[in-house]
Model the fold of this input.
Amino acid sequence: MGTTANDIEVIILSDDEDEAPENDVACDESSVYIVEPEDSRETDTALTPSTLEEDLVVTFSRRAEVLPHARYDCPIHPFTAEDRATDAPLAGNQLICDQCFCYICDKLASSCVLWCQGGICHCNSHKRSTYWSNLRDSTVLGDLQAFNLTVSEVDEHLRRAEKMLLIFKKEAFVQFSIFLRGQSLMEYGPNAQHQKRLIHDYTPVYELVSSFLYEADKQNDRAAAILRLGAAEVFVRHISCPGSLMLPSPVADVNKAKACLLHRVISSLQRQLVMADFTPEFRQKIQDFYRRFPLPIELKNFRNSLCVRPWTDILLVSVLKGQNISGVRKEGKKKDVLAEDMSVIFLRSELLQRQKRYRELCRYLRVVQSAEAAFSLQQLRDLIPFFMCLAGDFSSALIGFLPAVNAPASRFTPQLFLIYFYIFKSATAPQSIIASHPFHLCRSDAVWEPIKGAVPLKRELLVKFALKVHRCCPAVYADSQCWTSLLTVVNSLGASGRCSPSPQPKLHIQIPRPFLEVHPLWSSYTVSNLKLYFCLQEYPDQALLLLGNLWALQWLWGDLPFGAEHLGSFLQDVRQELKITKAGSDLTNVPWNHAMLADGGGGNEDGFFWGGCFGQTSGFTWTDQVLMSAELISFYCFASTV
Done:
């Protein structure tokens, strides 16, 4: 009801339309009623009790302005409704007012060219007819009707996508027709033997589809999804020409080109289904559209590629929240297993990392299954301890590195070990990267930032972790820099770090076979790529560091079986490589026990003592002997087992 200061106008709208049964096609009663005004204003009179009981009392009215409306709702011209009257206008249906709209064209009836056209009279259309409703959807939605979209879901982006798709279909039809006709061999070069045969080159069609998909990438999420599926529906129907000559280019072959294009479409749509904020209804519609694809036999592997669980899936939600640790949900006789394509797993991992939901990511990776690429899934699972570090849970990360079976630490590289070693030591981590492989942590451009809520690991625990990794990972065990990092922390522990980390009274050290086969000492030392000399030249103080741990020297002297004939050349090479002057004077201050050197600290079954060898080696100063001990300790670090 609208009111003014002196005048009152009343428009009564009927809700008969909502209450009418679906099979009632009578539209004689208008949904807009105009109350005629009285010729003269009524005098004020007292209202009777019966009048006061009325829900609505009209005291004044005047003719209202007629708003735009469909023809069947016109308040001026009556409308006669039938379910499917297309031959000619029914009684009076062709009459219109200035505000009548065509129900089919969704524009003014005066501009509809089919208003009274025989066989398709739009003037007889109304919304209670299934025939006219379907015709309206087909006219308004165009090619978008194939996606089962409604008029309310279509916006300007989807309108533009529908026009782009229509143009693409016409161009693709022309290019594919040229492909089917083929080209004579003379266009590729004369060949008398095959001049009558044709070459069918699919490359122009492939380039057209690729260009269209590139343009689709520039649209918003919903429009891009529609364009990609519309293009895929076109090219998956293309067939090859049997018996034609084949060009060496992969995209010249129809089947190979279709597989490449469909893989691109599926990859983009999978990313959208995981990353984009689609409504459940729109998401379901594009999945249903893809299921109706007539995929040929050579593309059958793509059949279930868009069966991507929404983030609201019951099983997925329970796994992320830690309520389900098996990844299996039973409902009656049905069993639902959390199994997804590897590409979807990578996408979920990427999104959870961007959202810093590291604990949920770890729960997901522990239970998710994939029928393909088991090695890739294993590499992604190896990052679970890293994600636990980013969550600030160093204790769980340590446990995750060294389980009883299939320990991720056994697959460490030296560089990866040093990265984790520094993470535990400093409570910082490269948080600017999206990791899907352990090697991604080794990127030089990664920005290291403090881990929220984390504190550096205690040195005793840090040393324990490093020793366990050295024991289970040969690559780390064979790297001098890994040992240097470990012994740096051990040396900083003070007196407690100078004791043997193992309570065993006797350790049996196994020397690697290459050390004994090639050359007992020096040759294998070089072949091993240890490069300890470079390490000590770059860090001169490491000689003091190595000598500060008596347990390592005792292990070495107690078990190394090498003879005296190799000692002279070894010491000579040490002095020649290092050329220590200042560092040598520093080494003279090391509080070593002369008696220990003289006694050898141990021996082998042949009665050879390192102390005796020291005595037999004339011309070497105390500094030389101490330096030699440091080198042998380093050699032990490469050759022994923890």
Observations:
- The chain has a mean pLDDT of 75.
